[in-house]
Amino acid sequence: MKKRYPIAIPVLNGNEKKYVTDCLDSTWISSNGSYIERFEQGFCDFCDTKHAISCSNGTTALHLALMAHGVERGDEVIIPTLTFVATANAVNYCGATPVFIDSEPDTWNINPELIETKITPRTKGIIVVHIYGHPVNMDPIMDIAQKHGLFVIEDAAEALGAEYKGKMIGSIGHSATFSLFGNKIITTGEGGMITTNDDRIAQQIRLLKGQGQDPQKRYWFPVIGYNYRMTNIQAAVGYGQLENIDWHVDQRIRVAKLYEQYLQDDVRLTLPVQKDWARNVFWMSSIILNKGTVQDRDHVMIQLKERGIETRPFFYPMHMLPPYKKLQKEEEFPVVNRISALGMNVPSYGTLSEEDVKFICMNIKEVLDGLV
Ligand SMILES: *Cc1c(COP(=O)(O)O)cnc(C)c1O
């Protein structure tokens, strides 16, 4: 039978099963239990932050962080237009308006030079997204934020383990959010985490994720909160994954280097970069067609699918999606309009062998040969 290559597969090759069994045997299956604390402690140790707070997914992590930073109805929050929809939606959940920014052509991340033109008296903060695993150029962004009194949240859903000038992603902004969905660097099935060095933000997030209950007074709710908790079972999986975090990160990088090895000479393609100040964790290996149309890109994807190779298109930019398209004009985003039409992610998971990547690359080249 022909081998099939999905875009992503979680790799659960550590103590995950043992720890989950421990939860079941001990009946600690809900949102209390020792794995929650162990996972949170391990996570903030890894990210080099004071706090890590678990929650139900990466989207609720963003919502919690925005609320803790005081985002309210009528506020504006600056975000990159090239991101997963959760970044924009979380801003909307607060009744605030996302304001979109075009990307840098090489890293595909938010372009710091375009941010100040979009700051208004209503701007409360900036969410940066380390897209596909490459860190955002944080220094200019932190400078802008300081100058204008804004918060910075790192949406680090795709970048656990990445580094910026030797600092861990997740430790640079005022807070950072992570997703632990099945295709992320490490997974808990569904799950999220928020890191911060700010005691007040951490305390506010813990309050809001547990229905707003006063930690000193049971069934007393000083604010309207949410049930955004992670379960001990999820944390058990996550703790098992975190024990092998270096392996998980190294595999993504290994796979990306193999794609680079077999594709970098192909003048028809652009590959992800790694700036000299960055450690890119290559959450998703990617290719962008240098020429052609969105139809050509889609044709390549269909042809690869027929060869058993699953790909996925780059995210549609936020400024094109129906709930957000009225906010800004399409012409404002020339860089993202091009890369989102011509980019795709290719199979990126830790158990791909060199032979697998070689086979995928050979097929990519053959399909490109067929493009006229
Ligand atoms: C995956 C992802 C999220 C959302 O995470 P979920 O756990 O699926 O809610 C948010 N932002 C970005 C950039 C993501 O890639």
Compile the SSE list and pairings:
Layout: H1 16-26, H2 34-47, E1 51-55, H3 58-68, E2 76-80, H4 86-93, E3 97-101, E4 123-129, H5 138-148, E5 151-155, E6 163-164, E7 167-168, E8 175-179, E9 192-196, H6 199-209, H7 232-243, H8 245-263, E10 269-270, E11 278-279, E12 286-289, H9 294-306, E13 312-313, H10 334-342, E14 343-345, H11 354-369
Helix pairs in contact: 1-7, 2-7, 3-4, 3-6, 8-11
Pyridoxal-5'-phosphate binds at residues 57-59, 83-84, 86-87, 129, 155, 157-158, 179, 181, 192.
Keywords:
transferase, binds pyridoxal-5'-phosphate, 14 strands, seven-stranded mixed sheet, transaminase activity, DegT/StrS_aminotransferase, Aspartate Aminotransferase, domain 2, 372 residues, single chain
Separate helix tally: 11
Radius of gyration of CA atoms, rounded to a whole number:
21 Å
Strand content: 5-15%
CATH architecture of the largest domain: 3-Layer(aba) Sandwich
Question: What is the ordering of alpha helices and beta strands?
Answer: HHEHEHEEHEEEEEHHHEEEHEHEH
Q: Cα distance, first to last residue?
A: 31 Å
Tell me the helix content. 25-40%
Task: Give the ligands present.
Answer: pyridoxal-5'-phosphate
Task: Give your account of this protein's structure.
With 372 residues, this protein is of the alpha/beta class. The chain folds into two domains: 16-242, Type I PLP-dependent aspartate aminotransferase-like (Major domain) (Aspartate Aminotransferase, domain 2); 245-369, Aspartate Aminotransferase, domain 1 (Alpha-Beta Complex). The chain has helices at 16-26, 34-47, 58-68, 86-93, 138-148, 199-209, 232-243, 245-263, 294-306, 334-342, 354-369, and strands spanning 51-55, 76-80, 97-101, 123-129, 151-155, 163-164, 167-168, 175-179, 192-196, 269-270, 278-279, 286-289, 312-313, 343-345. The strands form three sheets. The protein has a seven-stranded mixed β-sheet, sandwiched between helices. A four-stranded antiparallel β-sheet has the order 10-12-14-13. Strand 6 (163-164) and strand 7 form a beta hairpin. Residues 57-59, 83-84, 86-87, 129, 155, 157-158, 179, 181, 192 line the site of pyridoxal-5'-phosphate (PLP). Belongs to the DegT/DnrJ/EryC1 family.
